[in-house]
Amino acid sequence: MTENFREKIDAIVVGAGPAGVSAALAIKRGGKNVVVLDRSENIGSKNMFGGAVYLNSIKSILPNSYKTAPYERFMTNHTYSFLTEDEAVSVNAVGKNQTTATVLRPKFDKWLVEEAKKEGVFFAPKTLVKKLIYKNGTVVGVQTEQEKYFAPVVILADGVNSLLAKQIGLRPEFFPKDMVLSVKETLKLDKKVMEERFHLEEGSKEGAMFEFFGGLSEIRTFRKNKKRLVTPFAIGFLYTFKDSISIGLGVSLEDLANYKMRPYELLEKFKENPAVKKLIKGAEEQEYSAHLIPEFGFNNLPRLYANGVMVVGDAAGLVNSAHFEGTNFAIESGKLAGETAVIALNLGNTRHNILKIYKEKLQKSFVLKDLKSYRNVVEKLYSRKKSILYYYPKKMAELMETVTCVDNVPKKRKFRKFFGSIFFERSITELFRDFKAFLRLFFDIMF
Amino acid sequence: MDIEKKLINVKYKTDNVPHLVLNQEICKVCEDKVCLTICPANVYKQALSGENTDNDAKKSDTIECISVEYENCLECGACRVACPYGAIDWKYPAAGCGVAYKFS
Ligand SMILES: Cc1cc2nc3c(=O)[nH]c(=O)nc-3n(C[C@H](O)[C@H](O)[C@H](O)COP(=O)(O)OP(=O)(O)OC[C@H]3O[C@@H](n4cnc5c(N)ncnc54)[C@H](O)[C@@H]3O)c2cc1C
Ligand code: SF4
Ligand code: SF4
Fold first, then answer.
1. Which has fewest Cβ within 10 Å: A63, A83, A419, B82?
2. High-pLDDT (> 90) share of chain A, %
3. Is A147 helix (H, G, I), strand (E, B) or coil?
């Protein structure tokens, strides 16, 4: 990049994921020069997710996106599936209202960057930021492998591992409990087969998505000469794309570490579950990938700004992992940080007392409101994981069997037996704890 | 489970300098060695196996305790967070190098 250009930069954005591009667009639209640096050669090639994006969220920064974005399929078919070892009970919602669409990150991220370039955002691919340049308690620029860039404000959109936020102490070191590790496979599947299997209209862009609970419960482990049955906190997902599907798992990193489980072995076991196997039958492996999801949430939020710097998206842990929502938080936080950068640049003051506007904006937006109402969700679900991932899926399957099995036993006796079992087959305190956790979550989210 | 089979489909551009470097002194005394199981690409392996010859065993002081196949790394960061002793000097590969997803 030429000296001349570099002197004109008002803001530097590190990372060209949804958070970074959204921030850059807001800055450029506020009349300032901005450069986005990303370490990948082909943008998006470092990024993976489930995944579906939310049309309203994309529209909020790119109103024409409906026509131009590389949407693969629109999610008309949403299933929550509760698995036991060999049975499944599913809740399926089918609707025409299209608010969610699947994308492949390498294509989608590239599209985002191209849209931003059209508006005059500068973009430097294949540029790894090694560290932040810090002078008198203020971030004044970034050091890449080759050169230095200076600007009054730097936005960190460098994703979940954010080594840069760590460098300047905006966040403490992570622990396994703060993270979910996700492993996933993209599998090629014939369009016709897909349409039939997932009940999608022929030749349409209709699509299906699944979340799976259970199926990986009470797994035998052998550690320190002791046999144990363990239930790792793992949630499965499946998404349909044009001519492929993704099948993956998000697993608590803490459980993986404690139980010494290999993530790809869990994924294989999950794929072997009869209900899952049926859905991916005949699909051919195309790509395997892995990524962390930040889970530190509202209670452990890092510092979101300091002199000359703001942190957005995954780098700040802004994810609602209970719903696999992240791109919308990334886009909104990027936008609000970008707007704040413009205000600060216009005032000629990018110190923390002005950049705090970013946090105030976040507090008024759905980003911190949602994170706040969900602040205890993951922890509570985790504490009741055996109930959610093992006991209730089993009971749901039993209930279905009670309802559907015709075997000359009076119904009344069957139902009594089933409901009695809920109270008597486990200790009653378990039921009480489940109920308490449920109430707590209900009140957190509703009030 | 055959992780190699999964990794065949992943595209990489290999950096000739390792981006993951272990403090092997710490690894030698680490009991749990969680890196051996947590990595989704099975990058870390016990370097000394029972099949080593006597000759190798004698050298064990100088031989590294964990081998690192950094070429297979998916850059997820799990090992960095999971290692209880901060023994992994974890960096990104040089710009343009490392994993390159096409369909994820
Ligand atoms: C398995 C999985 C499923 C998910 N499913 C969904 C879903 O269905 N819907 C949803 O909305 N969200 C989902 N998410 C979350 C979502 O993917 C993230 O929240 C979102 O991508 C965060 O965007 P970001 O821009 O903050 O970071 P990222 O998308 O991670 O982008 C960070 C960018 O920074 C670059 N970078 C990093 N460090 C440097 C550096 N030092 N120098 C230069 N460049 C650097 C990287 O190359 C990368 O391009 C999922 C996540 C996972 C892992
Ligand atoms: S890298 Fe960490 S977890 Fe692995 S052996 Fe070394 S100290 Fe132990
Ligand atoms: S970053 Fe992920 S893929 Fe790479 S070595 Fe660590 S755990 Fe394995």
1. A63
2. 73
3. coil
Residue B15: give its domain's CATH number.
3.30.70.20
Question: At residue B40, does pLDDT exceed 80?
Answer: yes
> How many Å lie between the alpha carbon of B18 and the closest alpha carbon of chain A?
16
Residues A358 and A382 in one domain: no
Q: What is the pLDDT, as a whole number, of residue A3?
A: 59
B33 lines ligand 2 (CB under 6 A): yes
Residue A68 is assigned to a structural domain of this protein: no
Separation of alpha carbons B92 and A18, rounded Å? 20
Cβ B43 under 6 angstroms from ligand 3:
yes
Distance from CA of B66 to the nearest CA of A (A): 17
- The answer to whether residue B104 sits within a structural domain is no
Contacts of A244 in chain B (CB under 8 A): 103
Closest Cα in chain B, distance from residue A311 (Å)? 19
Higher pLDDT, A182 or A415: A182
pTM of the model: 0.94
Task: For residues A370-380, give the mean pLDDT.
Answer: 88
Provide the pLDDT for residue A16: 98
Measure the CA–CA gap between A287 and A283, rounded to whole angstroms: 12
Please state at what angle helix A18-29 crosses helix A105-118, rounded to 10 degrees. 10
| Residue B4 CA to ligand 3 centre (angstroms) | 15
Same domain assignment for residues A8 and A152: yes
Asked whether residue A201 falls in the same domain as residue A262, the answer is yes
φ/ψ of A84, rounded to 5, equals -110, -170
Say how far apart CA A366 and CA A424 lie, in whole Å: 42
Q: Is the pLDDT of residue A166 over 70?
A: yes
Closest partner CB to A106 (pick from B3, B86, B102): B102
Residue A146 has pLDDT above 80, yes or no: yes
The fraction of chain B above a pLDDT of 70, given in percent, is 84
Distance between CA atoms of residues B103 and A102, nearest Å? 12
Pocket test for ligand 1, best of A314, A319, A329, A331 (most atoms within 8 A of CB): A314
**Residue-level pLDDT at A344:** 98
Is residue A14 located within the same domain as residue A45?
A: yes
